[in-house]
Amino acid sequence: MNSSSFVVALWRGCTRDLIRLQPLLPLSVSSSMMQSVLMSTQPVSAARLPYRVKVSAGKRYAWCACGHSKKQPFCDGAHRTAAPTISPLRFTPDKDRTLMLCACKQTKNAPYCDGSHFKVIFQDLVKSVKGVFK
Q: Domain Iron-binding zinc finger CDGSH type, which positions (predicted)?
């Protein structure tokens, strides 16, 4: 099926031909493929370095664990659509202070930074160096 017959099939509503053609189209994406791309089961790194944040004693905070929030390092609910299997971590500080909250989402001491971002940065560096020698 060439591009002109694709347009005719679209115009006529011949979905059977479209479904058969879909794998051949460079810009076509099935809905299940789109959902699997949009929904992640692993957190994504929001930044390479931690966020320095002033927190207040007794106030509840929700640290973004998925990395999709636009209000990093805190949750804005983006995980509901982007990563439904990952929930934010809620915490309440015992006193007013400045904290370093993890942005790479690889910490073993969530929500606090434990230096895991150095490993993430190193892995990125290794990937870029390997790319140069391919």
A: 48-85, 86-123
DSSP letter (8 states) at residue 24? G
Reported as a single tens digit per residue, the pLDDT across 52-78 is 999 999 999 999 999 999 999 999 999
Residues facing residue 74 across a β-bridge: 63
Q: Tell me if 103 is assigned to some domain.
A: yes
The DSSP secondary-structure symbol of 88 reads P
HSE toward the beta carbon, residue 123, CA cutoff 13 A:
9
| Residue 30 maps to a domain | no
pLDDT, tens only, 108-131: 999 999 999 999 999 999 999 988
Confidence at residue 134, expressed as pLDDT on a 0 to 100 scale: 74
pTM: 0.67
Query: What's the CA dihedral at 107, 109, 52, 103 to 10 degrees?
Result: 20
Rounded CA gap, 132 and 134, in Å?
6
How many domains does the chain contain in total?
A: 1
- Per the structure, the complete domain to which residue 64 belongs is given by 51-129
Supply angle C-alpha 37, 43, 91, rounded to 5. Answer: 140
